[in-house]
Amino acid sequence: MFSWYYISGILILTGINLLTVLGLSLLTGFTGLFSFGHAGFMAIGAYTAATMTMQFHMPLLLALLLGGVVSMLVSLIIGRLTLNLKGDYFCIATLGFGEATRLILDNVQYFGGSRGLPGIPTYENNEYLAIVVFINVLAIVAMVFLIRSRHGRNMVAIREEELASQAIGINVFRYKITSLAISALYAGVAGGLMAHYLGYIQPIMFQLIKSTELTIIVIFGGLGSITGSVIGAIVLTFLPEVLRTFFQWRLVVYGAAVILIMITRPQGLMGGKELNLKAIWRWVKRRRGGAENDSSAIS
Amino acid sequence: MTAVLSLKNVTKKFGGLTAVGDVSFEIEKGEIFGLIGPNGAGKTTIFNLITAVYSLTEGEILFHGNSLIGKQPYQIADCGITRTFQNIRLFKKLSAYENVLIACHKLANYKIIDTVFFRYGKNYQNQERKLHEKTESLLKLMGLWEVRDMTAANLPYGMQRKLEIARALALEPQLLLLDEPAAGMNPEETIHLMELIRQIRDEFDLTVLIIEHHMDLIMGLCDRIFVLNFGKALAQGTPAEIQEDKRVVEAYLGKEDDAHA
Amino acid sequence: MLKVEDLNVYYGGIHALRGVSIDVEQGQIVTIIGSNGAGKSSLLNAISGMIKYNGLIEYENKTLPHHAHKVVKSGICQVPEGRVIFANLTVHENLKMGAYLRNDLKKIQEDFERVYELFPRLKEREKQIAGTLSGGEQQMLAMGRGLMSAPELILLDEPSLGLAPLLINTIFEIILEIKAMGKTILLVEQNAFKALSIADKAYVLEQGQITAQGSASELLKDETIQEAYLGKKNK
Amino acid sequence: MSSFLQQVINGLSIGSVYALMAVGYSLVYSIMNFSNFAHGGVIMLGAYIGLYALSLLSLPFVAALVVAAFGAGLIAVVLEKIAYSPLRRRNAPGLYFIISAMGASIFLENFVVATIGPTFRTYPQIFDSKPFMIGDIALGRIDVLMFVISAISLGILMFIIEKTKVGLAIRATSYSAKGSAFMGVNVDWIIFVIFILGGMLAGVAGMLFGMRYTVYPQIGIITNKSFIAAVFGGLGSLPGAVVGSILLGLIETFASVAGYSTYRDLIAFALLILILVVRPTGLMGKATEDKA
Amino acid sequence: GGSGGGADSGSDTIKIGWIGSLTGDQAVWGKCESQTLQMLIDQKNEEGGILGKQIELIPYDTRGDANEAVNAVKRLVSQDKVVAILGPNASGQALAISAALESAKVADIATVATNPKVTVDDEGNVKPYNYRICFIDPYQGAVCAGYAADKLGYTKAAILYDVASDYSQGFSQFFEETFEAKGGTIVAKEGFKTGDVDFRPQLSKIKAAEPEVILMPYYYKEVALSANQARELGIEATLMGGDGWPSDQLMEMAGDAIEGSYLVNHLDFNDPEVKPLQDAYDEKYGSVLELNGYMVNDAFLLLTAAIEKANTTTDSDAISKALCEVEVKGVTGNIKISPETHNPDGKEAAIVKIENKNYVFQEKYGVN
Ligand SMILES: Nc1ncnc2c1ncn2[C@@H]1O[C@H](COP(=O)(O)OP(=O)(O)OP(=O)(O)O)[C@@H](O)[C@H]1O
Ligand SMILES: Nc1ncnc2c1ncn2[C@@H]1O[C@H](COP(=O)(O)OP(=O)(O)OP(=O)(O)O)[C@@H](O)[C@H]1O
Ligand SMILES: [Mg+2]
Ligand SMILES: [Mg+2]
Q: Which letter does DSSP use for residue C155 in this model?
C-alpha cells in the first residue's frame, strides 16, 4: 500500500537522522553530555559538503567526509570552551552554539543567507539510499566497536561518576571532547547527506527544533543503547509520516507520544540494553526457565 | 632508599578554616601506614590533596621524590596512586564486573582508531582478553565473583566497599589509599578485610595508606600510624606506641575503649 | 508500641525480607543485628514508609500509613543509613529541617541547644554547608537532625558508622539518654557488641529472615552469635 | 544622549519580559534541577486564558490577571502530575524530565494550533497604548508594569524561599527528596507548591506578554531567551535570573546600537559563553568545590 | 495510514495534492490556503467536477520543514497518485521538492513562494515541473522601491527586516538595489530574527537616522508589533511593506500605527470581483480570507484550465505542459505562465494604501 518511492525517501531521511543520532548517542547516551546544538553541526557539514560538490566538483563521498571533518574541527573549538561546564550549563551553551551557527548562515550571503543554497547536485533515489545505508552500516559498526572497547567503557564511566573516573586515571576532559568530536563528525556527514538529498539547504532547516528532535530520538530509543538509537530513529522518523493523515493533530499526537513513552518507559525503548544474537539467545533461555542475568550496555 | 610518598608541610585552608595544617610524614615502600584522628581532623582532606581533588594551599607532596603539584586527578592515578572513597563513589548503575573492567583500562594501550580498524587484530584481542582476565581475578580475590552481574548500587554496603578496593587495585597501583574501608562492616567482616588487605599488599607489592576508625583493624594491620587532630600532627609511631600515647587516648581513643570494639 | 508482622520486601526479583515479625515495646531499646545485606536497612525503610512492602506494620495499635511523611507525623523518625543530609543547606538549616513538623518554637529552641551541646563540633560549624563536612561530622548532623524532630520512636541505622572511637561511646551514651527520656529506640548496628550491651531486646536477621531473638543479654552470651557477629570471643 | 537613554530603557523593558519568564523557570529549576522546557507552553496558555478572561468573560484587568495566574498554575500542576510525577517516583535522571517537558511543550503548542487555531490574537486595549513621555524618551506603560511585577514577584519568592519554613523545605527537597521525606516533608505537596507558583508566574508573564505584544501559539519560543538569561545569571538563582534577563535585554539592545542588529543573538551567545568560561556557574550561581 | 484506495488510477476521481504548513509558525497562512482550496474544490464538484470527474483533495502538513515537504510530495505522487500539487506557501519547501517533482513528472504550482530560484535554477534554466502564481521577490522589491522613489518622491529610506526569513531578506535586498539605483539612499538597515517581538532597539536607531519611509518586508504579526513600537517611539515616517501585510488581523492589531502606509499587493481586496470569494469563505469558515486564499484560488483556476486543455485526468506530464498554454482571469489578474520562467507573465502589482483602517487600492503599478 505504501509505494517504494515514498518509503525509500523516508528511509533516506531515517538514515540521515540515524547517523546524527548515533553520534549524539555516544555523546548523550554514553558520555552523559546533553546537546541542543547538533543541528548546528549538521548545518556546518551540509554547507561544507554542498560547497565542495558545487564549487569544486568534489566526489560526493569525499565532500561528505570533508563536511564531517570541518564540523568536527568546529566542535573541538566549542568543546574547548564549554566542556568544563556542568549539566544544564553545557546544554544551554550548545543550544547557543546551534542558534549562533544558524544566525551566521543567515547572514553569510556567499551561502545565500536565509534564502538558502539551491542547486546542490542530487542523486537518483535508490542509488542514494544505497549510499546512505552503506554509510550507516559503517557508522554503526564503528560505533559498536568503539563502545565495546576500553575507550567506550571509559566514556560510560564518565557518565556515571566523574570524580571516580578521574581517580582511576581517566582523562575526563579528553574523553568528553573526543566524544563531542566524533558526534560532530557523524552529524556533519549526516548534514552533507541531507544537502545532497534535498538539493537545497536553508539555515532554517537547522533550527533548534531539529536538535530537539534528535535528542528526543536518543532518549526515546534508550540512553546507552545503539540498538535503541537505531530503533528510535526509525520509529520517530516514520511516526510523523504514519500520522500524516491526522493533519494538524499530528504533532499533538507526537508530543503526547513522547510524554507517554517517557512516563511508561523512562529508560527509553531499549534503556542500556542491546539487541544482538547473544541477548536474544539469553532471552529465549530465560523464557524457557533458565536464570541468567540481563545483558547490559557494555562489555 | 627514598620514601614512596612524602608530605612536606602540607596545609589546606577552606576560607578561614584550616582543615590540614603543616602536616609532614613519609611512607616507606611496602608499609601499611595508618592515618587516624577524630572526625573532621582532616584525614580525608589529606587524601583529596594527594589525589589532586583539592589543590594545596601550602606545602608539597612528593611521590618517589617527584612533586605531584599541578597534576590533574587522572594524572595522579597514572603515576600509580589510587584510592577508595569514604562516601562510596562507584559507577552505581553498572554491574560489579563493569566497574572493575573499566578500571582495568590502563592495562591496555590500544587507541580509538584501533578499536575501529584493528578490532580483529591479535594485539587488540590479546589486550582485551587481558582486561577481562584481570577483572575476573580481582573479583575473585575480593570475593565478589558471585555478585559480578549485580548492579553496584544494589550491593550491600560492605560489598560496595570491597568493590571500591577492587576497582582501585585494577590500576595496579604502587600506592593504595583506603578511606574507611571497613565502615559499615561488622567485626567479623572487618577482620576478614584486614587479612585481605595484608594479602593484597604482599601479593601486589603495594604500599598502603589507610584511614580507619576500627581500632582492631588499625592496630592489627598497620606498621606505623600517624595521628591527626584538628588538622595538625598529634603523634606518630608504631601501634603499640600510639596505644600508649596519652594525647591520642585522650583526643581519640577514649579510655575504656580498648577493652572491646 | 511497634508491631511488624509477616513483612515482605521485594526489589524487583530480589526477596529482601521474608516474613519478618518484630515487636518493639514502649521505652525499650531494641536492636537488630545481622551481616551485610541481611535486610536491616530494608526493614527500617519499610517502617518509615520509604519502600513498598507487604505485611502489617502497626504503631500504637494503628496500621502505619504507607507514606513517609505521614509516618513521621505519627512520631517515628529515622536516622538513615548513608546520612542523607541536605548537602546544600547549612548545618543549622539541616537541623531546622529536622523540626519541620514541629510548631512549638520554644521547645525547638531548647532542642537546638541540646543538640549543639551533644555535638559541640556542629555548633562550631553552624554556618558551614553540610556537604563539605567530614564524614563523621555528617553522621553527627544526621543524628542531631533526627533528634530535632523529637520523635517518640527513633529508628537508628548504623549511627556509629564512620565515627571515631571516642565519639562512638558518646553516641551510645546519647542513645541511653534518649531512652531515659522515655523514648523508644530501634537500633541497627554493625557494632553488635555495643548494641547488645545497651539494648533490652535483640533480633538477628539473616538473609531476610529473623533467625534468633531474645533479650539482649542472652544473645550476648550466645556462642553462635558471638562467633558470627562479635568477631572474636569477648576479651 | 536622549537616544542613549531611550536605548537603555528599551533594553530594560526587553529584559523585564525575559525576567518575568525566567523567574518561573528558574524556580522550577532550583527545585527539580531540570530545565522545564514546557514553561513556555504554560506561559502561552496563560496568555490565552487572560485574553479570554478579558474578552469573553469581560472581567476587569486585575480579575483577569488573577484568573490567568491561577489557570496557568493549575495547568502547570496538571502537567507535573502527568508528565513529571511518574518520573519522579522512579527517581529518573534529569534528562528524562527534560525530554518529557519537551514532549509537553510540543503537545501544548500544537494542541492550541489544532483547537484554538494558529491565528494571532490581540488583547483588547486596557491601558492607554501611548507611552509616558519623559522629554524625548518613551516609556511604555506595560513595560513599567512588567518591571514592577517582576520585582514584586521576585521579592515575594525570595522571601518564601529564604525566610519561611516551606522555603527551607523547598530547598531541602531540591537537594534530596528522600531526605525531606525522612524529615516528614510531604514531597508531593512541596512539588505542588513549586509548580503552582511557577505556573502562576507563567500565567502573569503570559498575560502581560500578550498585552504588550500579541498572543499566538508559538509564544513559547521566546522563552528560550529567558532560559539563556537564567543561565547568564546562574541557574537556580532567582536574583540571578532577573539580573541575567536585564543583562540579556541590554546586551541585545546595545548590539543593535553598535550596528550589529543582524548578529544580535550571536553577540548574546558569545557573551554567554564568555561569562560561562570565566564563571562556570553564571553570574550569581553558587560555585561549590566538590568534596570527595 | 494512507488515504484510502490511493493507487487506483482507474478511479472516478481526479486527485490533487496540497502541501503547506498546518502547524508551526506559518500555520495561519497554510490553514487558510488549504481551507480555501477545499472550498473551491467542493464548489467545482457541485458543478460537476472537471472533465466529468469529481476532484479529491489530498492535503498534507509540512510544518514549514523542507524534509517534510519532500516526504509529502513523494507520498502524493507515488502513492496517492495526484496529477498536480498546489502549494507550498514558502520558497524553502518549494525549492526542496523540485527533484521529487521531476522524477514523478508532476507539476507543482506554488502560491506565495517568491524566491526566483523556485522555478529557475542557477544557470537560468527553467525547472520543468515548478510553477508559481505569484510575482517574485525582485519584482516586489523593485515595485515597492520604484513607487516609493518615483511616485511618493522619497529619497531616504530605512529597512527593518527579518534576517532569518528568506522572504524578508530577498525583498529587502531588491528594494535596496532599486531604491539606490533610483538615486535614493538607505539611511539605516536593521535586522531581527524570526520569533522576536521587540524591535525598539532597532527602531530607535532607525529613528535617529531620520528616514522618510521605512520598509517592513515581513509578515503582519511582526508588522503590527514593529509599527506600534515605531509609533510609540515617536517615529512618524511612512511605512511600506509587501504581500506579507494584507490581513484583517493587521488592522485589528495595528490600526492606528499603520494608517497612511503603502503596500504592494497581488490584488485589490475591495475589487467587487473578489467579493464572492470572500463571502463564500466567510460563510463557510466564519473567518476572513488571508492573502493565500486568493493566491490558491488563482492557482486552482489555472490548474483546472490546464487539465481541461490537456483533456486528461491521469497524465500529469501533459497537465504540466498545458499549464503554460492556458490563460485564466484570476482574482489577482490575468494569469499566463511564461514558458521561460514559469512565472506569471506581466502580472502587475497592486499598490494599496491604508486609509481609515481600510486597504484602499491606489493603482496597478509595474516596473520594467
Ligand atoms: N570543601 C570544603 N569546604 C569547607 N570545609 C571543608 C571542605 N572539605 C572539608 N572541610 C572541613 O575540613 C575538615 C576536615 O575534613 P575531613 O573530611 O578531612 O575530615 P576527616 O578527618 O576525614 O573526618 P572523618 O573521620 O569524619 O571522615 C572538616 O571539619 C570539614 O568540615
Ligand atoms: N534498591 C535496591 N534494589 C535492589 N536490591 C536492593 C536494593 N536495596 C537493597 N537491596 C538488596 O536487598 C538486600 C538487603 O539490603 P539492606 O540494605 O536492607 O541490607 P542491610 O542489612 O542494611 O545491609 P548493610 O549492613 O550492608 O547496610 C541486599 O541483598 C541488597 O543487595
Ligand atoms: Mg573522612
Ligand atoms: Mg543497611
A: E
CB C20 within 8 A of CB C44: no
Q: What CA–CA distance (Å, rounded) separates E62 from E72?
A: 7
Q: How far is CA D174 from CA B47, B163, D27, D161, E23, in A?
A: 29, 30, 11, 11, 37
**HSE-up (13 A, CA, CB side) for residue D153:** 27
pLDDT at D77: 95
Separation CA E14–CA E81 (nearest Å): 9
Percentage of residues in chain D having pLDDT higher than 70: 97
Pairing of strands B32-36, B224-229: parallel
CATH number, domain A4-298: 1.10.3470
H/E segment holding residue C204:
strand C201-206
Q: Is the CB of A93 inside 8 Å of chain D's CB atoms?
A: yes
Domain boundaries, chain C: 1-75+151-235, 83-147
Is B53 in the D-facing interface, judged by CB distances under 8 Å? yes
Question: Residue A52's beta-bridge partner residues?
Answer: none
Cell of C139: 553522621
Helix count (H) and strand count (E) of chain D? 12, 2
- Whether chain B has a CB inside 8 Å of the CB on C130: the answer is no
**Average pLDDT for residues B226-237, to the nearest whole number?**
93
Reported as half-sphere exposure (CB side, CA atoms, 13 A), residue A198 has a value of 30
Give the tens place of pLDDT for each residue, A119-152: 899 898 899 999 999 999 999 999 999 998 999 9
Q: Report the alpha-carbon distance of residue D235 to residue D227 in Å, rounded.
A: 9
Q: Does C1-75+151-235 carry CATH code 3.40.50.300?
A: yes
Give the distance from residue A261's alpha carbon to the nearest chain D alpha carbon, in angstroms. 9
Q: Which grid coordinates are listed for A271?
A: 534503556
Instruction: Report helix, strand and coil shares of chain B as percent, to nearest 5.
Output: 45, 25, 35
Cell numbers describing residue C18 = 521474608
pLDDT over threshold 80, residue A245: no
User: Per residue in B63-80, is it b (16+ CB within 10 Å) or e — as a string?
Assistant: beeeebeebebbebbebb
The DSSP secondary-structure symbol of E288 reads P
Give yes or no for residue B77 having a pLDDT over 50.
yes
pLDDT of residue C21: 94
Beta-strand pair A117-118/A200-201: antiparallel
End-to-end CA separation in angstroms for chain E: 50
Q: Which CATH class is domain D2-123+137-278?
A: mainly alpha
Q: Which runs of E-coded beta strand occur in B54-146? A: 58-63, 66-67, 81-83
Domain ranges for chain D, please list them: 2-123+137-278
- Indicate the pairing of strand B66-67 with strand B58-63: antiparallel
Only one residue has cell 482507474, namely E10
Instruction: List the grid coordinates of A7.
Output: 518509503
Edge to edge, the sheet with strand B17-27 lists B17-27, B5-14, B58-63, B66-67
C-alpha cell at D156: 515575594
Can you say how many angstroms the Cα of residue D179 is from the centroid of all Cα atoms in its chain? 28
The answer to whether the Cβ–Cβ distance between A152 and B115 falls below 8 Å is: yes
Distances (CA, A) of A236 to A22, A29, A81, A214: 14, 17, 32, 9
pTM for this prediction: 0.89
Reported as half-sphere exposure (CB side, CA atoms, 13 A), residue D208 has a value of: 28
Give the C-alpha separation, D110 to D116, whole Å.
10
The dihedral built from the CA positions of residue E242, E246, E250 and E252, taken in this order, carries a sign that is positive
How many residues in total does chain B contain? 261
CA distance A105 to chain E (A): 9
Q: How far apart are the first and last CA of chain B?
A: 38
Pocket test for ligand 2, best of B144, B146, B150, B157 (most atoms within 8 A of CB): B157
- Check pocket membership of C38 for ligand 2, CB cut-off 6 A: yes
Q: What is the Cα gyration radius of chain C?
A: 17
